[in-house]
């Protein structure tokens, strides 16, 4: 009884005032990041040019055309960041691992391997083809990592999952190199995609991405209450009528879809899910009904901000967003691993 009481305290309600402050702050930051993405870059855009560009009136300035070119990039970055934020929240909940992330568990690398293999052996080239190959690779890698991490008496502990994911990612990265090195055309096609970027976004990519994003978000929202029950332990969850196995598979499926599709279209961008989820959990606690939607907003903010930062740091060139997120995320991962000692959620 005491254990149940202690576990239930983890999901105690936060104050409405605090929630409101977090939500308002998140949307303000999102708006500022959208504005920065449209205005900042190799060519700075004035307010008048921004308004003209967004109004889609007759083109009367170069700045307005720059704004219009940046609109799909901005929307695509928001979608990718939201997808990775939700994916990270789902994977942390399913594995009960506070540092679980698609990049850490090897899912990104599995998706990348299948895309490279598709380019090399099947000659794929379109966004839709990339998506299906990436999804297959992400799902198989997730199953493999969870299977390896579940071996032994203790089952799938957080530490074992991280180790399995890291080892799998290293092995798959070697396979990627083995496929690319003898094939220069594959390397040329893959090298810019590999670092993770939203710079090549267009409306076709957004239209291809949106159905998968909507499905993933719907599934994530539907399973959130059941995942909260799982956080109290399998016995408690079963006592509340939760089918633990089905919920884990469904949540993992949604997380893999969101990660796989993002990786297919933008490359293996890492650490977004880790950063976004921890920021929200730190402010509002572990309630996944709040973590999932707010991680989507936070992930969109982080990726958009990283994209803008990459543009400004090397202007008039660009530093890819995946490089910026890795530069920020790696030390934070080290800090979390040392402070939290990879304990389960």
TrEMBL record:
<dbReference type="InterPro" id="IPR000522">
    <property type="entry name" value="ABC_transptr_permease_BtuC"/>
</dbReference>
<dbReference type="Pfam" id="PF01032">
    <property type="entry name" value="FecCD"/>
</dbReference>
<keyword id="KW-1003">Cell membrane</keyword>
<keyword id="KW-0812">Transmembrane</keyword>
<keyword id="KW-0472">Membrane</keyword>
<feature type="transmembrane region" description="Helical">
    <location>
        <begin position="209"/>
        <end position="230"/>
    </location>
</feature>
<feature type="transmembrane region" description="Helical">
    <location>
        <begin position="105"/>
        <end position="124"/>
    </location>
</feature>
<keyword id="KW-0813">Transport</keyword>
<keyword id="KW-1133">Transmembrane helix</keyword>
<feature type="transmembrane region" description="Helical">
    <location>
        <begin position="75"/>
        <end position="93"/>
    </location>
</feature>
<feature type="transmembrane region" description="Helical">
    <location>
        <begin position="161"/>
        <end position="181"/>
    </location>
</feature>
<feature type="transmembrane region" description="Helical">
    <location>
        <begin position="288"/>
        <end position="309"/>
    </location>
</feature>
<feature type="transmembrane region" description="Helical">
    <location>
        <begin position="130"/>
        <end position="149"/>
    </location>
</feature>
<feature type="transmembrane region" description="Helical">
    <location>
        <begin position="321"/>
        <end position="338"/>
    </location>
</feature>
<feature type="transmembrane region" description="Helical">
    <location>
        <begin position="251"/>
        <end position="276"/>
    </location>
</feature>
<protein>
    <submittedName>
        <fullName>Iron complex transport system permease protein</fullName>
    </submittedName>
</protein>
<dbReference type="InterPro" id="IPR037294">
    <property type="entry name" value="ABC_BtuC-like"/>
</dbReference>
<comment type="similarity">
    <text>Belongs to the binding-protein-dependent transport system permease family. FecCD subfamily.</text>
</comment>
